[in-house]
Amino acid sequence: MPTNWNSPFAQDMQACLSGRPRSIAPKYFYDAEGSRLFDLICELPEYYPTRTEVQILQRHASDIATLMGPGADLIEFGAGSLTKVRILLDAMAAPLRYVPIDISREHLQAAARELQGLYPRLAVQPLVADYGQPFEVPTLAGAGTGQARRVGFFPGSTIGNYTPEEAVVFFRMAARVLQGGALLIGADLIKDPAVLHAAYSDAQGVTAAFNLNLWARANRELGADFDLAQWAHSAFYNAPLQRIEMHLMSRCRQTVHLNGQAHEFAEGETVHTENSCKFTVDGLRALAAQAGFSAGPVWLDDQRRFSLHWLQAPAA
Questions:
Q1: Which of 53, 148, 170, 65 is nearest to 99 (CA)?
Q2: pLDDT band at 103 (very low <50, low <70, confident <90, very high)
Q3: DSSP string covering the chain
Q4: Looking at the predicted structure, is the pLDDT value of residue 209 above 60?
């Protein structure tokens, strides 16, 4: 099949290889294979964020459900495998609808079918979209204005993938979509760098495979010729910027071809593939406040590694 060079992935990959310094948005990790690898990452012993957030959700699901109220319209940004939301659905009082939003069509649709089988009375309406771009959530059928309170769910500290300026853009989008409802958002907290290094450079090499899958995807979908053996996964904590950075590092001097163009890489040169910012509770609230959100309850684990925030969206 001919490559669609106008697709966002093709355009952004070409810009990445042509630019200096080289970087690309982490959303392109999540094709079907990347989504599968991320699910494996979430089960690794070193990767504390998933199990810690799950523990917080399990401990406080009843309180969260009370804040949501009966008949909520639940919208999840970057839904992935739809596992954490089940904790909320089990605690909620008759949710009217669940809209998981994700960029990976195949992975989302499979997860939505599985969830629908578990909750046959729930209206599950998956939406394939890049929530970093303009999109619209379909109107809830049969519900008039004011009958369904929209509650957003953004777990996993995905907010950390953004720069502070980009995070505010996300909050502004969420405020528009949620129309005066609320947002439940997970945020990873600042902690010992050794814990962070282990979480993003696991002993089994799953995170490395996840990072390298970006080049494998470019080979599969765009006909690029990345030699994966000549690239190394690099992840480190940038303390002044309070973020983990992931890079792909060239092991040697090499040339990569894409769309008929040659792109030179020096030995040791990197492509910046992801940030994972870490927060304080007050820092996360301050970013949300710039978009009009007001702070509600916040829940932490016993070790204060992770936070779950209830934020009231501004009136539409």
A1: 148
A2: confident
A3: ----TTSHHHHHHHHHHHSSS-B--GGGG-SHHHHHHHHHHTTSTT-HHHHHHHHHHHHHHHHHHHHH-TT-EEEEES-TT--HHHHHHHHSSS-SEEEEEES-HHHHHHHHHHHHHH-TTSEE--EE--TTS---PPP-TT--TTSS-EEEEE-TTGGGGS-HHHHHHHHHHHHHHHTT-EEEEEEEBP--HHHHHHHHS-TT-HHHHHHHHHHHHHHHHH-----GGGEEEEEEEEGGGTEEEEEEEESSSEEEEETTEEEEE-TT-EEEEEEEE-B-HHHHHHHHHTTT-EEEEEEE-TTS-EEEEEEEPPP-
A4: yes
Please state the pTM of the whole predicted model.
Answer: 0.92
- Quick count: other Cβ atoms within 10 Å of Cβ 296? 14
Residue pLDDT, tens place only, 233-271 = 999 999 999 999 999 999 999 999 999 999 999 999 999
CB 26 within 8 A of CB 161: yes
Answer whether 278's CB lies under 8 Å from 196's CB: yes
φ, ψ of residue 7 in degrees (nearest 5): -70, 150
